[in-house]
Amino acid sequence: MITNARLVVFSIVSAIVYVLAYNFGWQAFRYYPLLNQISIEALPAKSSGPTMMYYGWMGTALIAGLAVALIVPTKIGAKLPAAVAWVVPLLLVAFTLVYEKHWFL
Amino acid sequence: MITTLLILHGLLAVALLGGITHQVYSAYRTPAPVKGFISRYGAVNGAAYTNAMIVLYIAAAILGWIVYAPYRLEIRTALEDLNLPKANGIFEIKEHFIAIGMFMLPAYWVYWKTPLAEGNATARKMITAILAFFVWYGFLVGHILNNIKGFGQ
Q1: Per residue in B10-24, is it b (16+ CB within 10 Å) or e — as a string?
Q2: Cβ contacts (< 8 Å) between A104 and chain B: which residues?
């Protein structure tokens, strides 16, 4: 039961942090596919080609999710209503669609 | 090599699509006598699908992440040159959905853990439906984009 609560907390927190990460540019690292290089710092655009943040956003979310799941007392985690586990993703879907609407305007 | 990985990615996605659609249908199905194809389709033990769906989701996602870098260099650039922002937009949404779905997997596993808790039935149904939506969306978008501009075209 304790493990279950931690897993659910991880799911919720990491999903939220992923969305925050792409919204605010909180990538743990950048990946440069042209150079096949990972970098914490931004490299000069002229020589490095396109930058991929996606893996870095997931890295940020993974770290945050693990940290919070380990820190939050299991009693609190276990008290989370089950609905949070699906309402939060639904809200994140809605946010994502609004955030990406600029492609379609 | 990339084309091979992309085909493998697609095949895993097909298996995932079939499995999770079965599972979500079984989760929403009201228990009733099994008659005909439709009711047989839903009359499966949904919990038995969970671990396989998680493995397939992770495997398909990892292959997707591997082909994503060449996609960024070759396909996305071409889509920008072709002035197809909507095509890039639907892919951006796909990448977000697949990542959110990946992070939902631990909760999905918890709510499908047997013995199934009756009080978690709604969470179980909703999480599975959301994951199924992500998988269907990802599959269709991948297919559409591959039709617009495949690797090596």
Answers
A1: bebbeebbebbbbbb
A2: 85-86, 89
